[in-house]
Specification:
Number of helices: 9
Oligomer: single chain
Strand content: 5-15%
Shape: globular
Helix content: 40-55%
Strand order of the largest sheet: 3-2-1-4-5-6-7
Largest sheet: 7 strands, parallel
Bound molecules: nicotinamide-adenine-dinucleotide
Distance between the termini: 41 Å
Amino acid sequence: MEDRCNEQISPAGPLAGKVALVTGAGRGIGRAVARRLSGDGALVLVNYNGSRERALEVVEEIRSAGGQGEALGCDVSDYEACGRLVEDVIARYGHVDILVNNAGITRDNLILRMSEEEYDRVLDVNLKGAFNTIRHLSRFFLKQRSGKIINVSSVSGIMGNPGQANYAASKAGLIGLTKSVARELAGKGICANAVAPGYVETEMTQALTDKAKDALKQMIPMNRMGKAENVADLVAFLAGSGSDYITGQVICVDGGMCM
Ligand code: NAD
């Protein structure tokens, strides 16, 4: 909880005056989401766990474009640390309006070889991480009677994927979490939705061989991988007032892969 960015320009845009917390925003989809929400006028809290430098680069990009942001370190799988993060942010900004649970990891392995550690760590970050932030922030969303929760799931959580029993379970779990939270909070002005990206060009998918990428493209009607910005566009829509009557939904952004 440091690295305050203190350029206080007031940007215009549909999210002006809003504060957005994006987890795992130092790179990939999270980075694109942070930049996009900032472009729409939100003050963006760029959460990171591993690389503080990468998160600071994102904050710098936001600042250079005239926006406001801050890098905040926190391992989302740590319940107490998430509580401290939320308390700190509320103490300083008074409110958080948009929560994007984007932080995620893979530890792929076939079920016969998957270790307990591989299973547990993926569930802890991808699923419990979202529970942790929602659990701590929902109190404030309820007080302000507004809030947008956007959980980054995956088509793997809908379709399953060989070698990803842990990951697919975490992403399917996120869908159940999203729908339950949506039902609990719908009457209080709070929306909770999930986005389910297909295969997106990021460091997470960079490790795939060309052969695997070609095989994947065969499964995508649009015949190409997506870009982080495609996911960010959908998240920005769900974060804005255009989605005020949408809750409990899972929206795929996958070139038609999962239809
Ligand atoms: P990425 O690996 O580039 O980014 C993930 C980010 O999460 C990193 O910045 C990482 O540091 C952060 N992170 C990891 N563990 C963390 C923790 N404990 N606390 C806080 N931050 C943590 O991956 P990406 O492709 O940008 O993926 C972003 C999200 O989108 C993930 O939830 C991923 O499962 C999901 N997703 C990605 C794809 C894809 O094809 N890339 C497809 C479907 C879903």
